[in-house]
Amino acid sequence: MGRREAGVSDTWVALEPGADPAKRSAALRRAYDAYLTAGRVELPVRPEVADSWRRSARARVSPEGLAGVELDGDDLGAYRDAHALARVMPVIRELTGAYARDGEHLVAVCDAHGRLLWVEGPPATLARADTMNFVPGARWAETAAGTNAPGTAIAVGRPVQVFAAEHFRRDVQSWTCAAAPIHDPATGRVLGAVDITGGDRLAHPHSLAFVGAVARAAESQLALLTPPAPDPCARLTALGRDEALLTAGGRRLRLSRRHSEILTVLAGRPEGIGGDELLVELYEDERVTPVTLRAELSRLRRLLGPDVLRSRPYRLAMPVEADFDTVTRRLAAGALTGALGAYAGPLLPQSQAPAVTRLRDRLGDGLRAALIARGDPALLADWAYSAWGGEDLPVWRALAAALPRAQRAAALARVAALDAWQRA
């Protein structure tokens, strides 16, 4: 009986109650082989897993590959000590310690790039995980390691559970894991994820709920450690998301796509902009009338409040700190690592508004050019293995050239595949 036939609606849970783990694992192995050989998705593969397999395949992840270790020694220690999640590790350890010990599970925390920062648990389980490079400093982003709980949780922005042959890489298919993203409570940006990895017993709704609760507790602790201070400046978060977040006056608003575009334009024009010019900046279709724009602005004024959005010319009554402006400033100052760290993805990726398209391209092209010019393999890898950089051939070429000869094989293979794909 299939999952939907069984009446279970939460397909983020790997096994519905009463399912036999051994039988499900065998069925998944057959479905996995069918996908690799014929590109066909069969039951009992969950839709979320099928989507992740497709993303893994598009990213040219090898089913036989091994996660790469990018940080170790002093570099790893310095990076994670400075990471925001270091402040909540005591809470994560307190909540997960007994759970991990009693179940012989591992607890792992990764950054927003899927790079493992902490992996803790019983020595015997750690030794087993070491054979697949599930170790601190290794990159487990979905675009680098295929379907896996921490990498996929970051990719989709919600708690996920991955069971047995749902993993894209064969060497991980004897494991089950559940992970949840951890967000910055002030900006909503993903900081990383917390993961629990172990055996079949983790394929249970309780483990998914548990890891989600741990992530929420970590976010609450972050909020307590950095209490919001009165700030006359509004904050706009629009990188890597189609619906921007605006934090202002103690409120946090999720904006519609059109309102996100309007705020993006107004944030860059503190002196204001006339209605005719704003119309041109927002709409590709020249047939759109000023009446349509005024209706959108009226709805936005009701959402923000009459004292926030002003007219004649259209402008915001308070300064706006936008995440894309932060990237621009850091890049202009030569702080490339900081600029890349603040870059959560393309600006409003689905927007076709002329002003947004120009700014998105200028920001992405500037970062890419700076990365290639710097030639730092770690920074190039952060871009190449990101959701937006997986098919960026110039960056992959630069990464292959920057890596030590012994570590170039995977990058050269990706360059060859991308080059062949673009020529086809």
Automatic annotation (TrEMBL):
Q: What is this protein called?
A: GAF domain-containing protein
Originating organism? Streptomyces zhihengii
Where does the OmpR/PhoB-type domain start and stop, copy by copy?
250-316
Q: In terms of domain of life, where is this protein from?
A: Bacteria
Matching entries from InterPro entries are given as: GAF (IPR003018), GAF-like_dom_sf (IPR029016), OmpR/PhoB-type_DNA-bd (IPR001867), WH-like_DNA-bd_sf (IPR036388)
Checking SMART domains in the record gives: Trans_reg_C
- Keywords, in A-Z order: DNA-binding, Transcription, Transcription regulation
Q: Does the keyword Acyltransferase apply?
A: no
Query: Does the record bear Transcription regulation in its keywords?
Result: yes
